[in-house]
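Chapter summary example.
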Amino acid sequence: MRNPDWCRDELVLAMAAYFRAGRKQLDATHKDVIALSSVLNRLGVHDGHKRGEQFRNPNGVAMKLGNFSAIDPNHSGVGLARGGKLEKAIWKEYASDVDRLYTTADAIQALGAPGVVREPIRGWDEEGEEEEFPEGRLLTRLHIARERNAQACRRKKQSVLKETGRLSCECCSFDFVKAYGDLGREFAECHHRTPLAELKEGTRTKLVDLSIVCSNCHRMLHRTGNVLSVEDLRLLVDARRKSGA
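The structure predicted for these 245 residues follows.
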């Protein structure tokens, strides 16, 4: 059976391992390669029935580090193969921000901690609305789960209504009641503000972590892969309005 292609989560971990090794390839017997192989097998990012017997074994992990050495312009040796399109995209996103690379890799790795075998992600994008963020599927799924926490969202809405008397989008000021009357009463969406790389499973979502947004702005925030903050999008909307665009 052919093993599934490496996804973002796995490649971020591999790239972090490559940088932590001093931007050099490690062989299959190295302890860090063996440890990463174990983490990748625990993540549950691929369904079990799609995995072959050699799924993410140390040899495969070592070869993937070789792919990154082939992409690395500072690597003096010859890397293994040339690296695929996704490897190059991830290199471009993280090579100039190694601190973010390490933070993101640590957050992903925490989801594959020893003794924790995660359930595979089934239908995480079934509705066609979850676009995978640069940090990968697992942190994207955790982010979405926080936003869909009905109790936390209800508490946030009640708090904002008590304070301001209305639920207006923090990005564009759209108010569903003004637009739709009673039909839009107490309707709005909640966006989780915490950067994906700082998300931790098992922690409680605080009201300050959530922002009230309209459906359109929420989609735009997701479309940027969490690069734009609520405040950034607000400035963008204001600038467009002032320019008459």
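To summarize the output: Confidence is low (pLDDT under 50) at residues 117-129.
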